[in-house]
Amino acid sequence: MAGVTTPELVAAVSEAGALGSLGAGYLSGERLSAEMARIRQRSEQPFMVNLFVPDPEPQFSAAELAAALEALQPTLDDLGLPRPALNPPYAADFGEQLRALLAQPPAAVSFTFGLPPAAVVQQLQARGTQVWITVTSREEAQQATQLGPDALVAQGSAAGGHRGGWQADALAPTLELTRELLELGLPVMAAGGLMTPADVRRALDAGAAAAQCGTAFLLAHEAGTSAPYRAALERARWGGEAAKTVLTRGPSGRLARGLANRLAAVDTVLPYPAQNALTQPLRAEATRQHRPEWLSLWAGKRVAELTGEQSAAALVAWLTSEL
Ligand SMILES: Cc1cc2nc3c(=O)[nH]c(=O)nc-3n(C[C@H](O)[C@H](O)[C@H](O)COP(=O)(O)O)c2cc1C
User: Fold this and answer.
1) 100-129 per-position pLDDT tens digit
2) 3-state secondary structure of 210
3) Which of 5, 37, 91, 274 is deepest in the core (most CB within 10 A)?
4) Can you list the alpha helix ranges (DSSP code H) found in the chain?
């Protein structure tokens, strides 16, 4: 979970016997190396790193930029901010991230938003690192399989955060997609809406090699979830309107599931990752001013079932208690 997974969270999850995963999509190569070193200081257990496969630099006109800024004007006025400048590059350098991983390879690397180059898959595997690819449909899974990955991550429609696919999102129920992808012969990790020990058990009973939990860890003590984000999640635990999630392009330009708020209602956007770069200073200021209505509050459909704040170790022990 990029922006949320700290080295402390990853190490605590791995120490507790699960596989901690560092969401490194937004990190520079240098920062990624530093965060991996912090994980290794805290734990000798295996951990995973997740990267975003970059799209080509997005193209858009001055008129499209003006329209996207206009749609954000209420946010800017509300937060007392001037119009932000937008300069490329809009995303972290994928090549630098890969160099950091190859220098100190983790146990596994998962990719999302697309297919990594075949040479990258081979270089990682040659260093003993497993390569997992996130897919959202059978079509994507068939393409991914051509690259010879070690596993697929089946992201069902209930999942919090960005949709991880690149072509044909089936927005399928998690276990349905998991069962369908198992036919391709690779281990499948089930992701989306797995919030309780019974969910984890059901995922493994369905044939998944692992259950990938995201939202369930957002209130872990060690998570980097900001104070206003935590407050919104605490409200969501009461259910009702506060727990309603939507699929939106508002914060980043890429479809993602999060709690319904005013930023999620913004629908005139630049392509990803330009929109992400455009809203970044707004979201930083909204965090400072404790204004969750202008944050990306990524959360899965079953967010109301989130347990309260506790340690990652206690969460892992609970989630695996029916295995
Ligand atoms: C806050 C948040 C951030 C996420 N960031 C990433 C990410 O950086 N990379 C990724 O592959 N998936 C990301 N995801 C999606 C998760 O990998 C996973 O598919 C999802 O959390 C599973 O559904 P659940 O949230 O219902 O457990 C994120 C999810 C959340 C909730």
Assistant:
1) 999 999 999 999 999 999 999 999 999 999
2) strand
3) 5
4) 7-15, 29-42, 62-79, 94-103, 118-126, 138-145, 174-182, 197-205, 227-236, 274-288, 312-319
Residue 42: other Cβ atoms inside 10 A: 17
Contacts of 126 (CB under 8 A, 6+ apart): none
- The reply to whether ligand 1 has any atom less than 6 angstroms from the CB of 252 is no
Q: Is 50 in the pocket of ligand 1 (CB under 6 A)?
A: yes
From the CB of 156, is ligand 1 less than 6 Å away?
A: no
Q: Which residues pair with 143 in a beta bridge?
A: none
What is the whole-number distance in angstroms between the Cα of residue 117 and the centre of ligand 1? 22
pLDDT tens-digit readout, 24-68? 999 999 999 999 999 999 999 999 999 999 999 999 999 999 999
Residue 76 · residue 283 · CB < 8 Å? no
Kindly report, residue by residue over 65-98, the tens digit of the pLDDT.
Answer: 999 999 999 999 999 999 999 999 999 999 999 9
Domain range summary for the chain, segments of one domain joined by + = 58-90+225-305
User: Which neighbouring-strand residues pair with 220?
Assistant: 310
